[in-house]
Automatic annotation (TrEMBL):
<dbReference type="Pfam" id="PF01019">
    <property type="entry name" value="G_glu_transpept"/>
</dbReference>
<protein>
    <submittedName>
        <fullName>Uncharacterized protein</fullName>
    </submittedName>
</protein>
<keyword id="KW-0808">Transferase</keyword>
<dbReference type="InterPro" id="IPR051792">
    <property type="entry name" value="GGT_bact"/>
</dbReference>
<dbReference type="GO" id="GO:0016740">
    <property type="term" value="F:transferase activity"/>
</dbReference>
<dbReference type="GO" id="GO:0016787">
    <property type="term" value="F:hydrolase activity"/>
</dbReference>
<keyword id="KW-0865">Zymogen</keyword>
<dbReference type="InterPro" id="IPR029055">
    <property type="entry name" value="Ntn_hydrolases_N"/>
</dbReference>
<dbReference type="InterPro" id="IPR043137">
    <property type="entry name" value="GGT_ssub_C"/>
</dbReference>
<keyword id="KW-0378">Hydrolase</keyword>
Length: 107
């Protein structure tokens, strides 16, 4: 996606098939460096903000967080929107610390 303005309205080229709007990408280079990104866009074109020089849309799916922050009993809601929360980063390897081989593991 080129940086700059994006379309504001869907055209016939945009699928009308309902989907969940979440994409996950994992890239591993020849030296074993790994980068992973998960993004969820709520509406067509997400936040409509493209990261300059990177070509992907920023997430706009904060509506799934609890805006009140507490449940009916006054306890902190698990899905409360608050600063400092981060996704759990996880990499699975074998006992020697290896993260892979010639074929990806299926389990």
């Amino acid at each position: 996606i080129a940086p700059g303005p994006v379309m504001l309205h869907a055209t016939r080229a945009v699928s009308t098939t309902p989907d969940h709007g979440t994409v996950h990408m994992t890239v591993i280079d020849a030296q074993g460096g790994i980068v992973a990104m998960t993004s969820t866009v709520n509406m067509i074109m997400g936040s409509r903000v493209v990261v300059p020089g990177r070509g992907y849309l920023l997430n706009n799916e904060l509506c799934d967080f609890d805006p009140v922050g507490v449940d009916k009993d006054g306890l902190r809601a698990v899905n409360a929107a608050e600063g400092g929360k981060r996704l759990r980063r996880t990499a699975l390897g074998d006992d020697s610390g290896s993260l892979g081989g010639k074929r990806p593991r299926s389990s």
